Predict the structure.
Amino acid sequence: MLQKFFYQGKGLFLQSLHPAASITFIAVLLVLAVIFTHPFYLIGILMVTLLALWAADGLAAWEGYLKVALWMVVLVMAINPLVNHNGNTVLWQGPCLPLFGQIIITMEAVSYGAAMGVRLLDMVSVFCLFNLIVHPDRFFSLFSMFARKSALVVSLATRLFPVMFAAMQNIREAQQLRGVDFSKGTLRERAVKNASLFNILLVSSLEDSLQVAEAMHARAFGSGPRSRYRRDIFRPRDGICLAGSIFSLGVSVYSLARGLGTYTYFPELSGLFSGSLSLLALAAVLGGLSLPALLSWGCNRCHYLKLKI
Amino acid sequence: MSLFEVENLTYYYPETEQPALHNVNITIEEGEFLLIVGGSGSGKSSLARALTGLIPDFYGGRIGGTVFYKKRDIRSISRRDLAGEVGIVFQDPEKQLVMTGVEAEVAFGLENMGLPQAEMFRRVAEVMSFLGLTPLKTEFTTTLSGGQKQKLALGSVLAMQPRALILDEPTSQLDPAAAEEFFNLIKRLNEEMNMTVVLVEQRLDRCFHLADRVMVMENGEIVRDGPPGETAAWQVKNGLPFVPPVATLFARTGSPDVPLTVKKGRRLLKKKLRNGDKEMTVALDQQEQVMSPSGGKPVVEVKDLWFAYPNGREALRGINLSVNTGEFLAVLGENAAGKTTLLKHLAGLLKPNRGKVTIMGRDTRQATPRQMARTVGYLSQNPNDYLFQDTVAEELRFTLANLELPDEGRVDRLLEKLDLTRHRQANPRDLSSGERQRVVLASVMVAGPRLLVLDEPTRGLDYGLKARLGSLLREIAKDGTTVIVVTHDVEFAAEYACRVVMLFDGRVACDGLKHAALGSSMFYAPQISRLFRDIDSSVLTFREALNKMRLSPY
């Protein structure tokens, strides 16, 4: 059931990208979601991410992520106006509440809360995209260029996670049929029952870890410097996507330096666009980031393009 | 030329007083296929580890004597060099895979050896192609079947291009088809590539004949070493069980020739069985007659059971089944046929999407697993899922306390019955695999269930432990508890069950008394039945075969 939320090899264009290209694309999306405050940029990043999710056949998975994220987004949007009393345009003044003081809802705080909600949505969507298009081994392989041992530890943990999840379920079932009712009892009693599950899992995992270590030892792990197996080929498509991501990042830095990507919420909302340059910069940023999805669309329709890149 | 020479090898694991290996002396020639057999704790796995340098390099402990590899003391060879010469595949594929993806797993050992990219790529490509793993190269290792995982474990060792391959019970977790495929691969490696193979195995009917030499171990010592036929005859004469059924049968009847395969056995049988015609049938196994309840109220009733997992995979499709009091039923079938899913329905852990499961007249849809626990005893595949108390007795008392049942001597009686009294105060995790399994059996039997369901209980057990478990389950069934066992072990099902259900793709493909179900099967027939096919179809168990042979003078 949870499989749709994680990487599944479907032979998609975005999954065929070199990890350097796909991870750069993801990283740029994430960085831009953090550094921009302008609502149009934040919405634009969301649109581009959704486009990529569509190209990665991941809209169904994204809906799953959305079910969890939407609560957080609504919470951010609701709490921000309650605690943030900045802003000149007062929409509503309420009674005095403990902790919050007097409730003052301003237009600026509502707008800021909404923008932060969109930013959160951007990040969740980018995370979803990462899970769907980057194979963990390829990611760790790239990561191991810088931190070999850490990458291996993370890879090992990633592999063991579903195994331990299944083991936990088996232990729970075995306990249930020895009369343990995990839903009954006081909080403390239930905590004790659940602790016994972890106890069994921990002891079994420790025993298993010795066997894994032995197998690694037998395959010469730790016998000296390791080399790195690279199976990825850098193709024109990777160059185009990488160039698009770097171009977008460059334009973004330029926009921020020129004050085009920032937006003033307090004390009063500033105008949405200061001129045609800001629109052009936005189009350039989004254009560069749309390249992977557009190429994916093109390759699905044009065999010639697919062969050439 | 000898590849390994072991001289006066004695080894103690850390903090133990009993040697795991005692004065072992052997020579293994290059290109030889050596099979090591023996009971649990006989020192087979320790010897395998000594040949790979894991003992004492990984385990520590005290060691005496020397293992030479190509005339060099194995301890003087660097680990990296040794890994490129001697590879080992372990029992459980789950616990020897490291990476998340298939291709990365094959490359893992090569990276550890520090090989250049071009060399790694060539070796990965060759191995994946040889083992037929290429279509799986982008798969996650967790999504592979048991057979595929073990093949991958083999591939990741073969990529290191060892001269010798050590295999420690590599098929114990596999179904019969996957085990057969695995042994065929090993045979190819030995015959076509002159790879030296040292195999430690319990599934002897499929590999005994492949070996050039068989070594029998007991208490850390080699008690016999010789050609397979000769070793088989010696074992039977000395009451050791580590021989394929067909060889045991002929040796027991005093035949001077001891065949190791069904093919040779049939040739011999046809030649020697003077009255091998149809009317020469033997009486059914008495045990089966005793254990095939003719009537009574059914304990288990499954009506039109359908079940699909949340990912949409239909695991059970219209299952109908009725099992009576005291019946001993074996459920067979390939991987993913729905066996475990059916078992979980019988235990009340899963609820039907459609249809109905009743246990002792109670609809499982209306009962929680805790309510079912008084009626159903459930043993999952891994005994370690149960054990967490400090002593064996506490494990049993834990079940009683949860179900609010009084002790009234139950714990003592059960420990006595399962030969666990001497381990009463021992930590269950310190016991051997067979003993752990008996503790788990006791911890569910203490509630006095009317139905006992077991998932793959013979996994990793040697012949002796398997026989002991089979007899115990028979006894439990005889006492009136219905026993249902899911197993891949056809020999076990044939020998101990009274009825067999075969599942295929979530449906019942066959349901009947074991003679009818297994005797007519092509691939799920035990070795004895295959031996007597078209000679006497009523012969299925070892006892029946022995009777038949004795009734037919040579």
Observations:
- The two ends of chain B are 43 Å apart (CA to CA).
